[in-house]
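Researcher: I'm preparing a figure for a lab meeting and need a structural model of a single chain. I don't have an experimental structure, so a prediction will have to do for now. The sequence is pasted below. Please return the structure as tokens so I can convert it later.
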Amino acid sequence: MTRLSLVSAIIALLLITNAVHAQQNCKVLLPRIATLYTGPCKKGLADGKGEASGVDRYTGEFKKGLPHGEGTYFWQTGEVYKGEWKKGLREGMGEYYFNIMGRDSVISGIWKDDLYIGEKALAPYVIGYRSNVGRMTFMKMDKDKFYVRYKFSRSGGESASAMTINDLLMQGSSGTENQSYNFTGFENVTFPFEGKLKFLAPNMTATANLSCEVRLTINEPGGWVVTIFY
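Model: Understood. Here is the structure written out token by token.
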């Protein structure tokens, strides 16, 4: 071997060694695919299009050490998911292939927080019916607590229901009814949540009471404050 060939071989060996060392130091944060990773790295974490394996295997896009973007996940048990990911969870459009009772099956549609929610995305909330009620606003205040709280507004000013409305009747598909000076509603609910409210409120000239009714559905989990303007 010539001196030039020897130097070239040493350089190639060093490059390969550095590449292997870089891959070993590039972490994947999902334990089931964290044994071996090949692909680009950023600040010690898998970032870009690569492949990771362990008990299971994933090939596709990574961000900050987690599947993020387009990718395909292969479970050890044979199931396969092809589609969109967000922070290590199935999120967006995707197809899930599996076998049930010896027959190949597939679920296709929208995924959120690693759960299948249907063939098309559900609206966060839906107003099913309203009578003698103006506009309504829905504000998601908390993603880790699960409640639906109502406020009532008259001429742009929020006030306690006891001061402005009468004969309030609430129904909720889940949760525990709770009332305070600032709001009334349901705590510890499960979603989708279906709610119904009936109450009496004065008309704009305060010469008569109007019978008001609202029916709504909230699909997206979280802590919601619904303001009803009448």
